[in-house]
Specification:
The protein is α/β, with parallel strands linked by helices. The protein is 33% helix and 22% strand. The chain is built from 22 helices and 33 strands. A 7-stranded parallel sheet has the order 13-14-12-15-16-11-17, sandwiched between helices.
Length: 756
């Protein structure tokens, strides 16, 4: 008897075993999709991971059907999934759910895109019969015209006897209708009379028309060429190399030359970006050179498109280059040789919800190891972890300190808005210096970027009389006011309520917004500078793929000249005419209750500053803050990366934080606060038996209730070099012991490894 171990797409640990009926034996390979029964009356699509003869000690159900002729998942993918499940302590079924497009997890989930074609009816496929047909159609003038045009388009008019002298061409119904300006009724009449016959032809959703033009590559300047050569030299000794280049130094051109070299060696390349928005500009640059050898993969593509890309990657005609966001690490590859992770410092590479909570940078490095490929990390502001890896020699390091065409880094002017507010010189969130710079830039035909890392109109509404603040019923947070939709929204659970006309506590009708979101910034700038053509780029305005493309295209072409945005606009976008960047409130980033706050603030301010003056003359940045004396502000102004990271690493080492220690957060959730409090105390006590003083908490997180669930958090600080495998065994055992207690039947416990 044969058995097969499978992955079920459910949040369950381990593999499940099914028996293989006689007729299906010998037909299953690991990586194939199977249809199996589960429970009393459910069926699931699963993935085979192992076929064996070992009879389990329980009664197995038979698999129902084999859904693949060849495997849908490669050995390397299965190995990567298992690594993710082990390292990030996530059920393998959750990894499968995250990795596979929906159409591959449902029997009828994917429908090929088809178009209707017409062909000649079988009765008329010889020269004599066609003459008869034309004679029979003489009284139906329009039908005869359409039929004759079809014969011409398909080359059936070249028939000699019962053979066509040239290959018959496929003709779509739409092509025939457009060519003859006929209606669908005419085509229907011809098919009913058997002169024509309709059939469906499968067509891909992917663009395959753009041809490669490798000769369009730009010649590297001396600094870029030196960096390129150094990377190749480093790759001879290191599997992972960091390219640390200042903003606008031309890192992308170096990537393009490395991609060409990989393609010439018959290798595939994975090019990861942290934000979908970035793929718009990079795609245009890569398509001009690599044409239809480039594939794009991210969550804004339809599920059907993602299925087709997945299948193409398994075919003999796979893409040479895949450009995508973090989910692209899950695609199948056959000959992966190079992984490029651009903006490697970005926190967007970390998946937060739902599981698995993987980091795409770490996962991509592991993927490269499985293929014995090389990994290049590109950034102007390295993550602390990667920076330390270069200092210790684990990663190679190449520096690119010269901006493209020797343009200077932007001049950064720090404005003390605390002093300006005291003297009542601020106009809303804008200092006089910033408004003057915006007006001058726009009058000179230049462009401006304003950075505010809060979306919505007002982060909080408040009654002027009694101080009442509208809060989410499901979460422990205040609601954000969105003026365009005139409602209050919870940015944690997505719940919305209408804006109240009066305070429910005191009936006062004066509800005032506190703080500035991007929507309010947009309103203010349009009032103060009406001549500005304003666009806004945040989560609210970029919910579709076309929205990203429209906003970026409008700004690139000059149809808009002032772009307001959240951290999306800080990540590697390249605009020629931006001369002024305004950072409206640096303190909102610095005062965040997280040990990474200064690192992320330095990164975002440095990155968004780098959008100014990328081509042409030197750019100008206005950095507004209430604390201009902070050392970090000075380091941003002078672009003192080494000084910043020296201070940062000393602090992290002193207080036992990454990159010198690993963090694992243990979250416990329950609707009943007393239950989660009790469970957290017990879990903390159990963990201290294994880890002692490495355990901190439990404690209430900053947001202690989300989606009606009360939350407690336990922190594990684990020194580098500790046996992580044993750590995970202890965590899973403690969790299993907790689950045996009937008080905690509905308790949710999950782990966030290497949290951000």
């Amino acid at each position: 008897m044969k058995y097969v171990d499978v992955i079920l797409p459910l949040p369950l640990e381990g593999y499940f075993t099914y028996s293989v009926p006689g007729p299906l034996q010998g037909k299953i390979s690991h990586g194939m999709r199977l249809l199996v029964p589960f429970g009393k009356n459910k069926r699931h699509i699963v993935l085979a991971v192992k076929v064996h003869d070992v009879e389990p000690d329980f009664e197995c159900k038979d698999i129902l059907q084999i859904l693949d002729v060849t495997p849908s998942v490669t050995d390397q993918q299965l190995a990567l999934w298992q690594w993710i499940a082990d390292y990030y302590m996530s059920p393998i079924g959750e990894v499968m759910n995250a990795a596979l497009p929906g159409g591959l997890k449902s029997v009828d989930g994917y429908k090929p895109k088809t178009e209707t074609c017409v062909t000649l009816g079988e009765t008329w496929r010889n020269e004599q019969a066609l003459h008869i047909a034309m004679d029979m159609l003489r009284t139906a003038r329009k039908q005869k015209e359409v039929f004759a045009r079809y014969l011409e388009m398909s080359h059936w008019d070249c028939i000699d006897g019962d053979k066509c002298n040239v290959p018959v061409a496929e003709v779509t119904r739409e092509e025939l209708m457009n060519s003859t300006h006929c209606t669908s009724a005419i085509i229907k009449n011809l098919t009913e009379r058997t002169y024509l016959k309709e059939y469906e032809r499968e067509v891909g959703r992917l663009n395959t028309e753009c041809q490669p033009h490798l000769d369009d590559m730009k010649v590297l300047n001396n600094a870029q060429q030196d960096a390129y050569n150094s990377i190749l030299m480093q790759f001879m000794k290191k599997n992972v190399v960091m390219l640390h280049g200042v903003t606008s130094s031309g890192k992308t051109e170096i990537y393009i030359h490395l991609i060409r070299q990989a393609i010439e060696k018959k290798q595939q390349v994975l090019y990861l970006l942290p934000e979908i928005a970035l793929t718009v500009q990079i795609r245009e640059r890569l398509q001009k050179i690599f044409g239809n050898r480039l594939g794009i993969y991210h969550s804004k593509y339809s599920d059907a498109e993602r299925v087709e890309i997945w299948r193409k990657q398994l075919s003999a005609d796979a893409y040479d280059v895949i450009l995508g966001a973090r989910s692209a690490v899950f695609l199948p590859f056959e000959r992966l040789g190079l992984v490029i992770i651009d903006e490697e410092h970005e926190t967007s590479f970390k998946q937060q919800e739902p599981m698995p909570r993987y980091h795409a940078r770490s996962t991509a490095i592991m993927l490269a190891q499985l293929y014995k490929a090389k990994t290049l990390l590109g950034t102007a502001t390295p993550s602390a972890e990667s920076y330390l890896n270069t200092l210790t020699g684990k990663y190679g390091l190449v520096r690119l300190t010269q901006r493209y065409k020797d343009i200077q880094l932007p001049e950064i002017h720090v404005v003390d808005i605390k002093d300006l507010q005291r003297r009542k010189m601020m106009k809303g969130p804008f200092s006089p210096q910033l408004l003057t710079s915006i007006r001058n830039a726009i009058s000179n035909g230049e462009q401006v970027i304003l950075f505010q890392n809060r979306r919505g109109f007002a982060p909080m509404m408040e009654c002027k009389v009694c101080g009442w603040v509208p809060r989410c019923e499901h979460c422990d947070v205040s609601l954000t006011f969105h003026k365009n939709m005139n409602h209050l929204t919870c940015h944690y659970c997505g719940a919305t309520v209408s804006m109240p006309q009066k305070c429910p506590c005191c009936d006062n009708t004066e509800l005032k917004g506190r703080g500035y979101g991007t929507e309010k910034i947009e309103d203010c700038i349009m009032e103060l500078i009406p001549e500005a053509r304003v666009a806004r780029m945040d989560l609210d305005t970029t919910r579709t793929r076309s929205a990203y493309e429209r906003i970026i295209s409008d700004f690139s072409s000059g149809r808009t000249n002032l772009l307001i945005g959240t951290q999306m606009i800080s990540k590697g976008l390249d605009f020629d005419r931006v001369s002024v960047v305004g950072i409206l409130n640096a303190d909102s980033m610095l005062n965040y209750p997280d040990f990474r706050a200064y690192e992320q603030a330095f990164t975002m301010m440095s990155q968004v500053s780098g959008r100014a003056g990328r081509k042409g003359r030197r750019g100008y940045v206005i950095l507004q803050t209430k604390n201009p004396q902070l050392p970090l502000i000075g380091q941003v102004v002078s672009n003192d990366c080494d000084g910043f990271y020296k201070d940062l690493l000393e602090e992290r080492s002193a207080f036992y934080y990454p990159p010198y220690f690993h963090l694992i957060y243990v979250y416990l959730k329950h609707k009943n606060e007393s239950v989660v409090e009790s469970a957290a105390m017990e879990m903390g006590s159990r963990l201290r038996q294994y880890f002692g003083t490495r355990v901190l908490g439990p404690d209430r997180p900053a947001v202690a209730r989300v989606k009606t669930l009360n939350i407690r958090k336990i922190v594990l600080k684990l020194e580098n070099g500790i046996d992580i495998h044993k750590v995970r065994e202890c965590l899973r055992y403690a969790n299993a012991q907790m689950s045996k207690d009937s008080r905690y039947n509905s308790l949710q416990v999950y782990f966030d490894v290497d949290p951000l």
